[in-house]
Amino acid sequence: MYSQRFYPGTRNSTALIFDRQYGNIDSIVCHRLQTCKPYIERLELELILEGHNGCVNCLEWSDTGQVLASGSDDQEVILWDVFRKRKIACLHTPHKGNIFSVKFLPKTNNNLIVSGAADKSIFVFDLNRRNNEVPIWSCQCHWSRVKRLATAPDIPFNFWSAGEDGNILQFDIREPHRCKSDDKVVLINLSRQISNNAEAKCIAVNPRRPELIAVGANDAFARLYDRRMLRLDSVEIGSRRVRDLNSANGNASSIDQQANQSLKNCVTYFCPGQYYNNNPKLHGRDIKAITYLTFNQYGNELLVNMGAEHIYLYDINNPVDPIFLNLPDYKTSSLGINETTMSGGIEDQITIVKRKLPENVESFKKMGNDYLENEKYLRAIDQYSEAIEIAPFCPILYLNRATALMRRSWYGDVYAAIRDCHKALNLDPSYIKAHFRLARALFFLGKTKEADECLTELIKRFPSYESNHGVMMLKKEINERISNNGNNGSTIVGGNNGNGSNGNSNSSTGGNVGNGSESDSDFLPLDINDFEWNCRINAKDYQQRFVGHCNTTTDIKEANFFGDDYIVAGSDDGNFFIWERPNNIIKSVFKADMAIVNCVQPHPNICLLATSGIDQEIKIWSPVANTLENKSVNRVQYIDSVVDSNQQKMKTDPFDLNTNSSFCRSS
Predict the structure, then answer these.
(1) Structural domains in the chain (count)
(2) Is 20 part of any domain?
(3) What confidence tens digit (pLDDT) does each residue in 316-359 have?
(4) Residue at 280 is within a domain
(5) Is the dihedral of CA 520, 526, 531, 537 positive or negative?
(6) Distance from CA of residue 90 to its chain's centroid?
């Protein structure tokens, strides 16, 4: 018989596979402790770093977190030792425009750093060289501004760039490179997919699966590519200028068809469901832009900050389709009881049991109802969300939150209400109020055909409600819209999505579609090919949504994961926001800039944040001692008024990429 022998330091294959996929368990525990609640509650301004002479547009921590790099309008890159509160080095770069992105190249001991700027150029610097301000590698392959750079943790010497020429370029600095030559560096050309006006705004590489690259552009769609299925093109073939020349020669269509064929089965689109429309004639000109996107440390979630909108989180491993009308079978309830065979009295009793709340949740519901009656919709939604976190099986909580969302009517609120109505109906298919509210929400969203079908099904299932006043009035409104439009009344992608009370028909962030009226003259058609249209109508829906900040003025505004349980982002009001997951409630708001906060970069290992914006300083935030003397002077106390002001600004001050104000040198 063989005896078992154990050797110190050896590990079984399962442990090795787990570590390869998810990282060392010790690092996971440290990551979760990084943002424990006591730390977040004591977060405060610790340090101000001064040295730049312009807006600080980008921040980047080294992989160990020992060094912070910053890029600015002054065309300088500064390296900081935050813990010793000093400047390590200042690179007077050859850039002739605002620096928008700076990255440490991985596996190089933080000695190599790459920068991209508005002058269309990219430079790589070796910090160990005596004359480290002279680039060791340079590129001017982009035809327009370089907005973002990206690296992969385990791929040294490689990086990717996103430019407003619509190109995503891939580089390996170990290879010789000649700019705008036959060198094949163009990985993705958005101009071929969308139009000549396509601009790449941001890019991110999945840290666990570096073959996956997410791209944000000047539209509402986050695109996730598998670069293993893409072939590189030369800049001359990939450039917009040459594409225009080909268009003049009648060759563009064949080139585009070849390019789109190569994208088949290797790209997935993600977009909030309120922008879904399966009618190609109603795809209006793009009116949104994604200002930033990033993956979580596990590579399974994609966080997207959308200009003139909110922040959305997508589950890339389990993507879901948008939902509008998908009624559950009424015959079988969530309790497994056939309700159609019951008398009215017994049925009412069963319904009451299913909607009865646990005692510890009733207080949340009552407080939410009070806020709802007093038109404090943000607080009402927060109360219902906290209650749902405790008791996710209670349909009345979802319906009440849907009511608050529809009354608040911020961007995307009506669609969020539709999602909540479906959750309530899945828990209780006999919930008549949920049926009716779903029909009304579909009507407000402009989904008139679906609203009519939902209301018809309600009457079919509950005949006694055919003469109900609310049902009759909604039926009348639906019929009037169908009669006026001569079609199903569906509205264009990207509209206000509200109840029409706060719409702004002149806003470039979307016309007022609350009343469902539509006219071909109201919308400028977007010339997209069949491939792009097919990708858009098959876009996957979001998993979570974070609201409250304002993102209308600059197109470099970030949103990041802060540990596993929090999301952070800057705002046009000079604040940065912290949301707590999974209820997505605003945990804290901090004043961090006189005008606009663009960058919010969490430290990779500890509870520490670096922020920057229009001001020339960089601010460092960390937990302080929990004493009575340490009263916060930067934490915003009246969050409701700040949030309301932000949402009004988003409706009255639309996102405009051509803005040229004193605050928009970074846009």
Answers:
(1) 2
(2) no
(3) 999 999 999 999 987 644 443 333 333 344 344 334 445 577 88
(4) no
(5) negative
(6) 33
568 and 476, same structural domain?
no
Do 470 and 560 fall within a single domain?
A: no
The amino acid occupying position 315 is D
The single-letter DSSP state of residue 504 is: -
* Whether residues 374 and 469 fall in one domain: yes
Note the residue count of the chain: 667
Using CA atoms, how far apart are residues 10 and 204, in angstroms rounded to an integer? 35
pLDDT at 418 over 50: yes
Q: Is residue 184 part of a domain?
A: no
Q: Which of 197, 200, 203 is nearest to 240 (CA)?
A: 197
Q: Which domain holds residue 457?
A: 339-446+448-489
Distance, C-alpha 157 to centroid of its chain: 28
* Euclidean distance between CA atoms 124 and 104, whole angstroms: 9
Identify whether 625 is part of a domain.
yes
Q: What is the 3-state secondary structure (H, E, C) of 330-385?
A: CCECCCCCEHHHCCHHHHHHHHHHHHCCCHHHHHHHHHHHHHHHCCCHHHHHHHHH
**395 and 485 both lie in a single domain:** yes
Contact 398, 424 (CB under 8 A): yes
Q: Does 568 lie in the same domain as 642? A: yes
The C-alpha atoms of residue 415 and residue 410 are separated, in whole angstroms, by 10
pLDDT category of residue 11 using cuts at 50, 70 and 90: low
Residues 351 and 482 in one domain: yes
Three-state secondary structure string covering 373-418 = HCCCHHHHHHHHHHHHHHCCCCHHHHHHHHHHHHHHCCCCHHHHHH
* Shared-domain flag, residues 561 and 476: no
Predicted TM-score (pTM) of the model is: 0.86
Q: Do residues 434 and 334 touch, judged by C-beta distance below 8 A?
A: no
Report the alpha-carbon distance of residue 581 to residue 315 in Å, rounded.
14
Q: 468 and 378, same structural domain?
A: yes
CATH number at residue 359: 1.25.40.10
Q: How far is CA 40 from CA 37, 589, 626, in A?
A: 5, 11, 12
